[in-house]
Design a protein that fits this description.
heterodimer, B: mainly beta, seven-stranded mixed beta sheet, four-stranded antiparallel beta sheet, 11 strands
């Protein structure tokens, strides 16, 4: 069963508008972490934001915020005031445990390609 | 000052050859990882080392052998390269695998097997 699901293969947004990239996850572990990474066309993986399962508040980092809905098992990334440079592939990832230990392993979703139009 | 660096950035080679990819991190992290990104952009963990000791070994052909001479370096050696090994290989590091810490990725090595 897929542990991390990104249902939007591609998204389009107008410059300066906000966009939400969806991510749902599946785990039975009460302790887990959710991460978002950006992969521009140049190929590097850039860390954007982290949400821990016990965090009381939604994570925010500059124009990035995470809409964390624990009961729904969703961790959507919200990018406000989109810029042309936000055009990239975005990956949601989860760090959970198997048998009580994760060994730090990240499980990634399929990714969403975001295109920002001028 | 690159935090996680990989060499080479590009690697084009013939089937059957043996090649190595090197990774170094200057973040003082204990844990390092190798991920493979296939042609469909799917990323999957291959190996993880904590302070030179192997802690994750996913189902990877034994043609792939990681080596960690010290905790700042994690190299990946691939024997008898096959067409299906063509992919982007990412090295990453984190403070310690026990913690919910961010993994920082290197720039990737694009391997093309002809």
């Amino acid at each position: 069963a897929q542990k991390i699901t990104q249902t939007q293969p591609g998204m389009f947004v107008q410059e300066k508008e906000a966009v939400t990239l969806d991510c749902t996850y599946d785990t039975s572990d009460p302790s887990y972490g959710l991460f978002w990474y950006k992969q521009p066309s140049s190929g590097e993986m850039i860390f954007l934001i982290y949400q821990g399962s016990y965090d009381q508040q939604n994570a925010t980092e500059g124009r990035y915020s995470l809409n964390f809905q624990k009961a729904r098992k969703s961790a959507n990334l919200v990018i406000s005031a989109s810029q042309l440079g936000d055009s990239a592939m975005y990956f949601c990832a989860m760090r959970d445990t198997v048998g009580g230990t994760s060994y730090g392993k990240l499980t990634f979703g399929q990714g969403t390609i975001l295109t920002v139009h001028p | 000052d690159t935090a996680v660096s990989q060499t080479p950035k590009y690697l084009v080679t013939q089937m059957g050859n043996d090649k190595s990819i090197k990774c170094e991190q200057n973040l003082g992290h204990d844990t390092m990882y190798w991920y493979k990104q296939d042609s469909k952009k799917f990323l999957k963990i291959m190996f993880s080392y904590n302070n030179k000791e192997l802690i994750i070994n996913e189902t990877v052909p034994n043609r792939f052998s990681p080596k960690s001479p010290d905790k700042a370096h994690l190299n990946l050696h691939i024997n008898s390269l096959e067409l299906g090994d063509s992919a982007v290989y990412f090295c990453a590091s984190s403070l310690n695998w026990l913690l919910q810490e961010t993994q920082y990725f290197g720039p990737g090595t694009r391997l093309l097997v002809l």
